[in-house]
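Each record in this resource describes a single protein on a pair of labelled lines. With that in mind, the following record should read easily:

===
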Amino acid sequence: GSNNWAESAARQWLNSSAAANSWWQRQTIFALVPNYANKAGLLAGLDPDFVDALGAVDITTTRNTVYEMGDTLGGSYTTRDKLFLPSMAEIGLGSNDSVAEGSVLPLYAGATQTDRIKYDQAAQTTARYWWLRSPRPWNAYIVRVVLPSGALGSDGAAAAGFGLAAACVIY
């Protein structure tokens, strides 16, 4: 898989109200069908009043410096999303290869490593890995993650079993 947020299955799923097996579209030759494609888009399962209150916001994400479709390397790009995975900057872990991917979200202002730990819904004492939208810029397939300890890590974009902790802006 690619580490480009704009092309990611996670972005498509978070921002879709389409039925199961209908929301995912191959964005590049590197895209892999996600193992959750048989689930409806996340917006389909949320209260309609909540979805109506979500504001679409501009999201800045670092571009990798190795390979991108269209050959645009380095720097950043902007997407417009209602739900998004936080960036390194937004959870208080600084810029990504000198690119500021937003500012610290209120939930993470002054957060410690322990404050960034997320737990499994089914086993609430089990800390989980969770995805950020930030790529590791010097690779084309590695994405930043938060480790079960709350520290910053990274893993392959096609790795399975990691969680999502989506952010949004409510108007």
